[in-house]
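// run 5 | inverse folding | seed 20
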């Protein structure tokens, strides 16, 4: 693809050229590629079909995970989270060592510890990564989903955006079935603290343990607020908030 230059920006098609606007600006590209029907039926494109099938399985796995945590993602996710998560899922499905080519899936691969480790630490918002704004260790109780931060002093251990006055922590635990595309989510009540020098231990626990079968995914959401006349407002529509996969079991 090529970037459009000049005062007048085009959208639409002119001959074999397509002009369009994307997140990267105004772009242009030339029509090309192999006919779709040939890819679907020609034996010479068997590998292409298999790759496409596995990419689709990875994308579906990413969608299942995003759907599971959608209530939290609405407050802390960047505009490229879908493609970034699909890339991780594509790497994970390669660890499926039992399914045939074209059918390797995250649902099978995620049983391997290596696959779980690849998903652990994923940040839903690259504009605000958890390990760049929170400088205290976390502990997780996988039996209850409780996430604890001991001896937290907000002014010393949190890199807060300008004009923020409060920070809140929310724990989430979802059992995600990547094979069937189902999930069950449990959330904690948020723990809200002023951004001051008071030392405390934060402990957030989901209200109940999910009972559905699937891979246990634990997440911490960290949100910033500005208090004005007794009401707290989220900063920059959530652009400063962090959401991180703490562990996968």
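// decoded
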């Amino acid at each position: 693809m090529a970037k459009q230059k000049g005062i007048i920006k085009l959208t639409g098609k002119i001959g074999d050229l397509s002009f369009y606007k994307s997140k990267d600006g105004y772009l242009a590209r030339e029509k090309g590629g192999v006919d779709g029907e040939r890819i679907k039926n020609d034996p010479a494109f068997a590998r292409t079909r298999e790759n496409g099938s596995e990419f689709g399985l990875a994308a579906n796995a990413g969608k299942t995970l995003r759907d599971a945590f959608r209530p939290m993602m609405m407050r802390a996710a960047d505009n490229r989270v879908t493609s970034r998560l699909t890339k991780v899922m594509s790497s994970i499905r390669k660890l499926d060592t039992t399914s045939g080519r074209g059918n390797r899936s995250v649902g099978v691969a995620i049983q391997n510890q290596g696959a779980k480790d690849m998903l652990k630490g994923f940040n839903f918002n690259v504009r605000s990564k958890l390990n760049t704004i929170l400088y205290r260790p976390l502990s997780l109780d996988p039996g209850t989903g409780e996430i604890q931060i001991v001896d937290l002093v907000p002014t010393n251990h949190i890199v807060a955006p300008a004009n923020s006055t409060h920070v809140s922590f929310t724990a989430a635990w979802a059992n995600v079935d990547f094979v069937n595309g189902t999930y069950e989510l449990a959330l904690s009540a948020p723990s809200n603290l002023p951004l001051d020098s008071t030392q405390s231990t934060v402990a957030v626990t989901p209200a109940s343990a999910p009972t559905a079968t699937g891979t246990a995914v634990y997440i911490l959401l960290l949100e910033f607020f500005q208090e004005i006349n007794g009401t707290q407002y989220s900063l920059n529509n959530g652009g400063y908030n962090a959401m991180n996969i703490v562990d996968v079991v």
